[in-house]
Amino acid sequence: MLALDALVDQDLLICPRCGSPVRREDGEWRCAGAHCVYAQDPFPVVAGVPALVDFEHSVLDADRLRAVQGASEVSRSRSAGLLRRLLHPANTTAPRNVARMLELLRTETRGRRPRVLVVGGGTVGDGLEALYADPTVDLIAFDVYASPVTQFVGDGHSVPLADASVDGVIVQAVLEHVLEPTVVASQIERVLRPGGIVYADTPFLQQVHEGAYDFTRFTDSGHRFLFRRFERIDSGSVAGAGTALRWSVDHFVRALTRSVPLGRVASLVFFWLSWTDRLLDQRHSVDAASSVFFLGRKTEEPINGSDIIDYYQGGM
Ligand SMILES: C[S@@+](CC[C@H](N)C(=O)[O-])C[C@H]1O[C@@H](n2cnc3c(N)ncnc32)[C@H](O)[C@@H]1O
Ligand SMILES: [Zn+2]
Fold it and tell me: Are the beta carbons of 114 and 137 closer than 8 angstroms?
């Protein structure tokens, strides 16, 4: 991963309020714009990193963020290794698409290291281990909380990075948690250089997770249209109808018995449903997928309403 100092030295950081450069002086982070509120009041520093957030237009609250020193408001425990492997067959979609993204970027950056941004990257996403271990990629990551795998705290609704500053963007399991996905998608487009590549994967038929911080779902077509100013390289389901059904059993049992542990037990009993995803017809499965993905290249020519009707790749 790039060091925070490298982002400063390369003038990549901008004010999320007004877009002026961000300056660090005597440990304080301020906007260089003469009339900006963040020129007077510095950005908070939490867990040693700046929170480059326009708090007036964010679900984040500056005082609360300072009080918890940038810690996540949501508990981030994952089930233990063996249990996780049983319930979640390895995600092969993300590594395949990210490898393709890097291969395409490398032919274009001609020797320059590709710069890839991870939006909502507080944890290393499923199947992204190889990307994080790749010493030839300049990785930037941020999230709404401070984490050892991010360089700063930020909000995807106003990404504090300069226009056209990255070659690739990864946004995995994040767009359901933002209030305005179209705004976040247009920020992704803004920070990508012309011809830059996005990989997004997002839930479709998944129950609420992360409690109060869960807002939206996407069909495969809706997800593709969110990235309307991108040319499609590939898209489809990440986890299919079997996984969606296992989640439904879990949450049905929770609701019926008023017990989360009993829901988890039911999920374990039906673990095999997730493993059926690979056997299912892809067209029917995408209509009932647990999550969908889109890999695409930024373009000047957006698709329109009739293009998205032609795009439909389900089974009806
Ligand atoms: C389900 S987690 C996925 C995390 C990681 N991408 C992964 O796949 O392991 C959703 C993430 O979105 C982040 N998030 C929520 N709202 C956000 C926002 N407005 N801007 C950036 N990240 C956000 C959350 O903090 C959380 O880390
Ligand atoms: Zn500013």
Answer: yes
CB atoms within 10 A of CB 133: 9
- Give the domain CATH number at 113: 3.40.50.150
316 in a domain, yes or no? no
**Residue located nearest, by CA, to atom 15 of ligand 1:** 177
pTM over 0.85: yes
- Domain span at residue 140 reads 81-311
Strand duo 152-153 + 49-50: pairing: unpaired
Ligand nearest to the CA of 158: 1
User: How confident is the chain (316 residues) per 10-residue block, as mean pLDDT?
Assistant: 94 97 94 95 96 96 95 77 82 96 93 95 95 96 97 98 98 97 98 98 96 95 98 97 97 97 95 95 95 97 95 96
Are 240 and 205 spatial neighbours (Cβ–Cβ below 8 Å)? no
Judging by beta carbons within 10 Å of its beta carbon (0-12, 13-18, 19+), is residue 75 exposed, middle or buried? exposed
Query: Contact 202/178 with Cβ under 8 angstroms?
Result: no
Q: 37, 67, 97 — which closes off a domain?
A: 67
Residues with CB under 6 A from ligand 1: 119-123, 125-126, 143-145, 155-157, 172-174, 177-178, 213
